[in-house]
Amino acid sequence: MEELEFLIIMATLTLLAGVCSVVFSKLKLPPIIGYLFAGILIANYIDIPTSSEQIITVLSDIGLVMLMFSIGMELDISKLKANGRFAMVVAIVQLPLMVLCGYIAGSLLGMGTLQALTLGAVISGSSTAVVTAVLKMFERITKEEAETMVLVTVMEDVGQVIILSMLAPMLATGALDTDMTSIVLMVAMIVVFMLGSIFIGVRFLPRILDWVGNKTSSEVLMVLAVGLCFGMALLSVRIGMSMAIGAFLMGVIVSQSIHRHNIEEKVMPMRELFMAIFFIHVGMQVNIHAFASVIPMIIIIFLTFAVSKFFTVFLGYYVGNRSLKDGFIASVSLMAMGEFAFIIAQEALGAGVVDDNFYTAVIGAALVSMIVLPLISRRMFDVIDWYETKQPKRLTRLLNGLTETRADLYARMDASEAVARRVHSSANRAYTAVFLIIVIEIVFIMASESISVYISDVMGLSLEQSHLIVMAINFFLLVTPTTVLVRNVKFIDKILLGRGFTNNSEGYEERADLYRALQYYSTALIVAIIDLLVLLLLPGPFGSAGSLVIVPVVVVILLIGVYLARRKQKKDAAEAAHSCPPVE
Questions:
Q1: Of the four, 139, 243, 314, 524, which is 20 to 30 A from 530 by CA?
Q2: Which residues contact 581 (CB under 8 A, 6 or more apart)?
Q3: Closest by alpha carbon to 67, among 290, 212, 178, 233?
Q4: Of 523, 499, 525, 517, the residue nearest 568 (C-alpha)
Q5: What is the pLDDT of residues 479-501, one digit of tens each?
Q6: Separation in Å, CA 302 to CA 123, 230, 443
């Protein structure tokens, strides 16, 4: 009976998935959509025995392990040497911003802190499989450009593995208000495990695989590699992490073997089969009758992902010194929610952190992004051709200004190696300061309620008064990293105000005035405004009382700052005029 049940399940899953994939491939859509659609049909319209769910879950777990193993093997070191630095820049710029956008959107939707962080993690990456399939459709995208965009998605996968590792202890407890010491220890253990696994594994395991590959057949090599994959997944689960992380790490290690291509070729059929079952299982979690009730949330999640992905990828390409045209093409081409959206959402659903409506909305938004991407990608070259033909003045002036500003900065850096080092150092310190600000706010969101209750009990104050004290503590802790951020940004602006600007560059006067205005405002004033705005805009447990206090303070400080800056500007102008006698 068990054999018959297993055969029925396998026949139903694979045949229906195959039919759906053929249908969607005719529509020039990726097979993943067919797998998800098959899962939705099975869950809502096909009766399967309850006991079969356990079989499907086991097969789905195998698919998850194989998927992550393959993603890890895609991390080609030779490609990293060519374009890895640029891809890392794009990922480093956009991933934190994507998580922040998702967190803010989730908070505005009324989600809790952990749910909002989960949403940010869900939307942070793009689908390597979908992006690769879409890029093959366009002859105007060169092979090098396509490989760079695929490498960016791989770097996003690495970043999402790190994000999932940081979320793992919180998802395990299902709350943020747990013991901070245990969470810190768990995160530290995860970091040590990941770094230690890669360091030790890369040092020894590729040599073993190379020896086996030279001495035995490719089938034996494949079995050994898959065995190592599941072994690392087991070790990952034993220390409280997701099996997906262990499988990914082993994929990275195996990718260093000289026989990696043989392993990939042998693993590919098994990966495709079980990966299909994984996505079928993801689709089976969706209640199609609940779709109507979550359509607004689907639209909001998709728009949050699409808009934030476009601007953050464009910013990453801009910072990486690529052309604005390349940035536009990449921003559109990467607008498909990644496989990690399903993995993270499923982990959160299994932990009880999110409900079925959230999960259904995420699946719906991912499907919308995968369906919309081929459609909008076909139109992006029409937009480029329209711009090159019409050359709208205002838009052209804006884009030329962006290009000139970046060119000035890079020219200044190229002219002096010492300046280049200082700019890179300032940028790194500014980025670190932003990261510390985010960490401080997450810690305060997690612990502020407990601290407020403690202060209220010890000092005999009301809870609202304790909240204001906690806000004050939060403000002063933000002062140091914000000061570092402002000072380093000001240094980069001074480079632009110096020999970086050329008088014959388009929009020179406007850009010089813009950057010079920042220098007139004191660092303390800018720090105060940024810190107060952080407390005002980021959701927290402080309530309306805190907002009512912060809003007038921000307005008053801003008005005083504007007045003092204008006064200083007039004073400097008068002194400059006085120091230069009139020409007779």
A1: 314
A2: none
A3: 233
A4: 517
A5: 888 888 888 877 766 665 554 44
A6: 9, 34, 28
Which pTM value belongs to this model? 0.70
C-alpha dist (Å) from residue 569 to 13, 87, 518, 565, 566: 72, 41, 11, 6, 5
- Residue 528 makes CB contacts below 8 A (sequence gap 6+) with 557
d(CA 258, CA 214): 10
| Tokens 């200083």 found at | 568
Residues 8-49: pLDDT tens digits? Answer: 888 888 888 888 888 887 877 778 888 888 888 888 888 777
3-state SS class at 483? helix
Q: Which residues pair with 126 in a beta bridge?
A: 337
What are the tens digits of pLDDT across the range 57-112? 888 889 888 888 887 887 666 666 666 678 888 888 888 888 888 888 887 887 87
CB within 8 Å of 281: residues ≥ 6 apart? 39, 56, 57, 59, 60, 63
Distance CA 391, CA 460 (A): 66
**Neighbour count for residue 180 (Cβ, 10 Å):** 13
Residue 306's pLDDT is 92
**Rounded (5°) CA angle 361-362-363:** 90
In the chain, % of residues over pLDDT 70? 77
